[in-house]
Each structure stands twice: as C-alpha cells, then as structure tokens.
Design a protein that fits this description.
single chain; 190 residues; mainly alpha; Four Helix Bundle (Hemerythrin (Met), subunit A); elongated; binds fe (ii) ion
Length: 190
C-alpha cells in the first residue's frame, strides 16, 4: 500500500507500535513457556519498556487521530466520494449517512479498549516487581496477547476505512493541513 503523507506517517507509526507489542509478546510467551529466571527478568524489562512506549508513542498516535484525523473525516461526512469509497469496502448502501460517524465511533471505542488493557497490564507489572508468581505471569501473557490482538484489528480497520479512502478523497491542500495539525499534536508528546 503506497499512501501519501500524512497517512504514510500514521502507517509507519502503526508498524512501530506493532513491532514494540510483538517484541513484548514474543519474550512474554518465551518466559511463560520455559519459565527461566533470565527470561522472566527480560520479560519484565521488555514490558516496562512497552509501558513507557505506550504512554508516549501510542498516546501520541491516539491523540493525533482523535484530535485531528477523526475530525478531518467527520468534516467530509457529506462528501459523496468518501461515502462511495467506504461503501465499496463495507457494502452497506442503506446506512450511508451514518457510515462515517459509525466507523469513527467504533475506532474511538477501540482506543478506550486499548487503554483498559494497558492499565491492566501496568497493574500486573507492578505486582511482578516484588517477585513474579505463575498467576501474575499468566495475566501478563493474557494482557500482552490481548493488546496485540486489539491493535492488529484496529490498525487494519483504520488503514482500510480511513487511510486508503482518505488517500483517494483528500485534496493535496487537505493533506497538507492535516499533516500540520498532526505535527502540532505530536509536539506535545516530545
Ligand atoms: Fe487508532
Ligand atoms: Fe492508528
């Protein structure tokens, strides 16, 4: 998929986030499978890094979407071409008018679900500091798997429902102004 900026930038952020979560999942699975103390220590370290990454990079990504990207699509709710692009994807001809706002609120809800899992993972991780029981380890593994699963589905939905149709429909002026708005939000997180 070749996308114009700033959709390409958001796609690169998806890839970076997916890599970070995938790495944490890999080491957590290895630790759970082999139970070696060195792997458990590496897992705790990796999950702590993931928490820092999520409170910085993932939070920045979600803020860019909620504060700039989603509103840019909402503005185009009446645009026939965007609705056409989306109905090709969704085959929901009868609910065209609600299609865009429905997609946006579903994506927004995924962000809330991700936050719930992130907080649960942080909570389990805080128990892990004083010594990790197999129960805590199982909870960590379930949490990181759920996070990976949630984000993979969510990224796919955003790329199919927003980035690709947006690349077809947004004018170059609109792309430029969206890029500038995303940059303003990003600066708050650096
Ligand atoms: Fe998102
Ligand atoms: Fe995203």
């Amino acid at each position: 998929m070749s996308l114009p900026e700033p959709f390409a930038h958001l796609l690169r952020e998806h890839e970076r986030i997916a890599d970070a979560v995938g790495r944490a999942r890999g080491i957590t699975e290895a630790a759970a499978e082999y139970g070696r103390p060195d792997l458990v220590a590496a897992m705790v370290d990796e999950l702590q890094q993931l928490q820092r990454f999520m409170s910085q990079d993932l939070a920045s990504h979600i803020a860019q979407e909620e504060e700039a990207l989603f509103p840019a699509f909402l503005e185009l709710t009446q645009d026939r071409r965007l609705i056409d692009e989306l109905t090709v994807q969704h085959d929901r001809v009868g609910v065209q008018r609600e299609l865009i706002s429905g997609i946006l609120s579903a994506l927004d809800h995924h962000h809330d679900e991700v936050e719930v899992v992130r907080v649960g993972l942080a909570d389990n991780l805080s128990h892990a500091i004083g010594g990790i029981t197999s129960e805590v380890q199982r909870s960590l593994l379930a949490g990181v798997r759920q996070l990976d699963w949630l984000l993979q589905g969510h990224f796919g939905d955003e790329e199919d429902d927003l980035f690709e149709p947006g690349a077809e429909v947004f004018s170059s002026e609109r792309l430029d102004s969206l890029a500038a708005q995303l940059e303003v939000v990003r600066r708050r997180f650096t």
